[in-house]
Design goal:
- With 506 residues, this protein is mainly alpha-helical.
């Protein structure tokens, strides 16, 4: 068997893992973020100033925000169920040290600190959880696309063949969800009136890099006979095409229907698509082709998974638009965000109940078809992921109140209460700004060039696979390659961010 066929077999016919393991895995990035924030606050408490060295800041960010994720999906995967507890215990230890070492003059009773925290106002113009969510989806995807080719990456985390819930199955849907959170329709101010199809016209111009990258990937994969999993998207289709067409179709729907009703469009799309799957021969066609023998003759047969899964991904996108609109409603207090987190948690619980019903009576989760269960599963887990980041941010806000003047990049700023007598409630005044601190942050660096980060990860993944026999790699070698790969990716983004370079071509 050739190397190409060996690698294709290595990532084929898999069944995924449990919902519980994926949920526990989702808690790791927020815990890493909390750990990094607490370490920065502890540094400020000890030295009386923030960490200003860009070199050490990059090293800290990589070792705390990225490296634990590499270990958890390789050598530490057998103890995945204990990983959140271990990191949480470490965070608790750091917090205890911060609380006990506060300066004498700032030592107010704990109950008073809690009251001050509940009354605190936050910068209403910035929601760090959205930025961190999108960055971490990109980071986790970049880790997964290379790590999956090494034997140390558990097969249960890879994409399931037909039915099942692998970590990488969630990654595809989460990428769609994250894109919709910041789409033009969400970011557009409600008071600004624009022609209905203006965003659609803008999307026509903004998706051309994705189309270009899609064709670039197609030509490069075919020309060098790179291994590919045909049942993912088909013979010619790939994720760049999916993302481009979903964005275009969503802009068309949002031009026709009110954007604040996008959740209704999402439900109708997902349910109608599932009904068609269950009542017609469409499911058989997707899984086995028009002749029921897995034929790939003709464009539709060759790319049936990629083309027909667009309906499911479009439903996820529309649901995320609704979530984005709701999240961007002005909340400028800790109390407001605690209530928002409660509401999101209730929504997640309802979605998980519906997921159980959908899997029992409609169809199990299938990324290959992007069916109703898959859509519900992706939205539920993405909201869970987002809630974890909101809770993390609130925990860091609370800790910053303990140490006067401390700052954490990509975290909420505490602002002065708005003067309701002379200003609107939304006009909160910052207590202080973080200055250049926000520039010394790996999350901000990746966020500035997200598409480039993803593209660079794809190119480097291909390069590593061409140069190295990944299937027979030893553990130490695998960890070394994965760390070098991610560090180089992050370093490029960090340098571009330091020079204030944003590579955007549309």
């Amino acid at each position: 068997m050739s190397q190409k066929h060996l690698k294709e077999a290595f990532i084929s016919n898999l069944n995924g893992t449990s919902l519980l393991e994926i949920s526990l895995g989702l808690s790791l990035p927020p815990l890493c973020l909390l750990c990094r924030g607490l370490l920065l606050i502890l540094y400020h408490l000890r030295y009386g100033k923030p960490l200003s060295s860009r070199k050490y800041s990059l090293l800290l960010d990589f070792l705390v925000l990225v490296s634990p994720l590499l270990f958890s999906c390789t050598v530490l995967s057998p103890i995945m169920f204990f990983m959140p507890t271990i990191i949480a215990a470490f965070c608790a230890g750091i917090f205890s040290k911060i609380y006990s070492q506060r300066k004498h003059e700032t030592r107010v009773p704990f109950r008073q600190i809690v009251k001050d925290f509940q009354k605190a106002y936050l910068d209403p113009e910035y929601i760090p959880a959205i930025t961190v969510f999108r960055v971490y989806v990109n980071v986790l995807t970049s880790i997964g696309i290379l790590a999956v080719d090494f034997p140390q990456y558990p097969r249960r985390y890879a994409k399931a063949e037909t039915y099942g819930t692998g970590v990488m199955d969630l990654g595809v849907g989460a990428f769609i969800f994250g894109n919709a959170l910041v789409c033009p329709e969400v970011r557009q101010k409600s008071c600004v009136t624009q022609p209905k199809f203006s965003n659609l016209a803008r999307q026509f111009f903004s998706i051309w890099p994705l189309i270009f990258l899609g064709f670039g990937r197609l030509l490069s994969v075919k020309s060098i006979e790179y291994h590919e999993h045909t049942s993912e998207y088909g013979v010619h289709w790939n994720f760049f095409f999916t993302l481009a067409f979903v964005r275009l179709a969503a802009s068309l729907l949002l031009a026709i229907f009110p954007k604040n009703k996008s959740w209704i469009v999402a439900i109708n799309l997902a349910v109608l698509y599932q009904l068609i799957l269950n009542t017609t021969s469409l499911k058989t066609f997707i899984l086995h082709g028009s002749d029921s023998r897995d034929t790939r003759v003709g464009f539709l047969n060759a790319n049936r998974e990629g083309l027909l899964s667009l309906f499911g991904y479009l439903a996820i996108y529309m649901a995320s638009v609704q979530a984005g609109l709701w999240l961007l409603k002005c909340r400028n207090s800790v109390k407001g965000w605690i209530e928002a987190a409660r509401f999101l948690l209730l929504t997640v619980l309802v979605l998980f109940v519906f997921l159980h019903v959908s899997q029992a009576y409609a169809d199990p989760v299938s990324r290959r078809m992007a069916n109703l269960s898959y859509c519900v599963w992706v939205v539920a887990h993405c909201l869970t992921f987002f809630i974890c980041f909101v809770v993390t941010d609130l925990a860091l806000v609370f800790t910053k109140l303990l140490v006067k003047g401390s700052s954490v990049p990509c975290c909420w700023n505490v602002v002065k209460p708005p003067n309701t007598g002379t200003k609107r409630e939304t006009e909160a005044v910052p207590v202080r700004t973080e200055g250049k601190l926000s520039h010394i942050c790996l999350i901000s660096a990746i966020n500035k060039n997200q598409l480039l980060f993803f593209l660079l990860a794809n190119v480097m993944t291909g390069t590593v696979n061409i140069l190295i026999d990944t299937i027979h790699s030893k553990t130490a070698f695998t960890l070394c390659i994965l760390h070098l790969y991610m560090f180089f990716n992050c370093l490029i983004m960090y340098i571009l961010h330091a020079k204030n370079i944003v590579l955007k071509f549309w």
